[in-house]
Write a structure and sequence with these properties.
By secondary structure, this protein is α/β, with parallel strands linked by helices. The chain contains eleven helices and ten strands. The strands form three sheets. Strands 1, 2, 3, 8, 9 and 10 form a six-stranded parallel β-sheet that branches. It has a two-stranded parallel ribbon with strand order 4-7. Strands 5-6 form a two-stranded antiparallel ribbon. It is globular and about 45 Å long. The termini are far apart.
């Protein structure tokens, strides 16, 4: 009888010990899960708000997701972020108009309600009534600033064009009169030259003397910081929307643009003749607008100071 009683006691104690161990294990598991949850929250708390925006707005136009729902979500997210950096200014510039494609550039700027800059060629305006209408659309659009890209575009013979500074200067002067341009702001065809307010940067020596003469006569020569390249022979934009966005973002972040907190993007009117290309331009603008610190600006105000 004593043996049976002792065996029963032993089994009872064993059962109690098992229950206690199981309870301890569950407590430990809960604590671990809780620690993992706390770690996850901590990691998001230290995320860079600007990096968060960059990740969200790097939208490639070839994405298969529902664009409208994505953009709606991202606008809300961007607005919630703390504005921790100064405003940064983006100058969308389009060269060689009026051309087929200019009408779509004008329409997109109007639809998006953003400032853009066009560097025009007088020779193109005289080529047809249609191109002249494209020019007039630009001229009458308050969102579009019209600037001087020479009358002849050097006839695409740049070395010869710049070999005589007097004649190349006269070409710009003729263009200003032919297109009734009100700003003394130029971009030299075939050259990425900056020269204004005693600041000068040249990419090729050929063209420097022309820039000097323009400067002496009150003109400001404007180059560019990054380019959305035009494919050959397709004429379509080469880089994706996200690649161009990163070019702009990196220049601003790294301070490698010609003027800090200001970035000038070069494009060409005839890149945007097709619906596919027009969609890419629209998507780029939408992506840039999502950033709480990016502002679109006119070249007449370059560089804007904070």
């Amino acid at each position: 009888m004593k043996k049976v009683f002792s065996l029963g006691m032993f089994l009872g104690l064993l059962s109690i010990t098992s229950i206690a161990l199981q309870s301890c294990n569950e407590d430990v598991k809960k604590k671990k899960d809780g620690a993992q949850h706390i770690d996850a929250v901590d990691s998001t708390d230290v995320a860079d708000p600007i990096d968060t925006v960059e990740k969200k707005v790097s939208i490639d136009s070839t994405t298969t997701k529902d664009k409208k729902s994505i953009l709606h979500h991202e606008v809300d997210t961007a607005r919630l972020l703390t504005d921790s950096v100064s405003p940064r200014y983006i100058y969308l510039t389009f060269d060689d108009g009026p051309l087929n494609g200019s009408q779509f550039v004008d329409s997109i700027a109007t639809a998006k309600n953003i400032k853009i800059n066009v560097f025009l060629i007088g020779k193109h305006d005289k080529m047809s009534k249609t191109l002249h209408k494209h020019y007039e659309r630009y001229l009458n659009n308050p969102l579009v600033d019209c600037y001087n890209h020479s009358y002849s575009h050097a006839n695409n013979k740049f070395t010869n064009f710049y070999s005589n500074a007097e004649t190349s200067f006269q070409d710009f002067d003729n263009n200003e009169k032919a297109l009734n341009l009100k700003y003394k702001i130029v971009r030299l065809p075939g050259r990425n030259i900056w020269y204004f307010a005693d600041r000068k940067r040249i990419d090729m020596q050929s063209g420097s003397s022309t820039a000097d003469l323009l400067y002496q006569n009150g003109y400001r020569s404007m180059g560019w910081d990054c380019e959305w390249k035009k494919g050959k022979p397709s004429g379509m934009p080469v880089e994706s929307v996200s690649q161009v966005y990163r070019q702009i973002n990196n220049r601003l972040r790294n301070g490698t643009s010609f003027s800090k907190n200001n970035v000038v993007l070069l494009m060409h009117d005839d890149m945007f003749q097709t619906r596919q290309a027009q969609k890419k331009l629209s998507d780029l603008i939408d992506s840039l607008k999502l950033h709480p610190n990016y502002k679109f600006a006119h070249m007449k105000d370059y560089p804007k100071q904070n």
